[in-house]
Amino acid sequence: MLRTRVRMGPVTGVWVSLVFALAFAALSHVELVIAAWTPRWSEPTPVTLRVPGTPSAIEGFRMDRVIVPRGTVLDPNQPSHRAAMHWDMARRPPSPLRLGSAFILYLFGTTILTNYFQRYGHSLLRLLRAQLGLFGLVTVMLLLAKAALLFTALRAFWIPVSAVALLAALGFDRRTALLLDVAISFMVASLLRFDLLLLTVFLTRGIAATLLFRNKKQRWQMISAGLMAGAVAVLAYLSLRTLQEGVVPLAEQLSFDSDVFACFAGGAISGLLAALFHEPAQLLMGHVSRARLLDLTDIEAPLLRKMATEAPGSWEHSRAMANLAEAAAAAIGADALLTRVGAYYHDLGKTVDCRYFIENLGPGEKSPHDGLAPEASAEVIVTHVVKGTKILRDGGVPEPVVEFAYTHHGTQLVEYFWNKYRDGREARRAAGEEVPELDESHFRYPGMAPMTKETAILMLVDAIEAASRTIQPPDHEKFQEMIRRVVFTKLSAGQLDDSGLTLSDLRIMTERMAATLVNMYHGRIKYPWQVKKEQEEAQAAIDKARAASAGKAEEEER
Question: How far is CA 441 from each of CA 237, 376, 411, 438, 489, rounded to the nearest angstrom?
Answer without folding.
Answer: 62, 14, 9, 8, 19
